[in-house]
Amino acid sequence: SKDEAEGGISDPFAGFESGHVGSEVDFYLQWDVLSDLSLSARIGFFFPGSAYSDDDVRPFYSFSTTFSF
User: What is the overall mean pLDDT for the chain?
Assistant: First the structure.
C-alpha cells in the first residue's frame, strides 16, 4: 500500500493513482545437502492491485547454490 494514492512507487507500470499496489505470497525451500553446500528455491506470486491496469498474476523465481568454505 502507498501512504497517499497520488504518491509514486518505483514500478513504472503502476500508472493509476491508487493506494492499493497489490499483495504477494512467497514460498521457499532450502536444503542443506552437505555441511558446506546448500540449495535454495524460491517462488513468489504478485497480485496487482488497483494501481495497475494489468491484473494478471506475476510469478517470480529464484534458484541458488551456496558453497561455504
Answer: 87
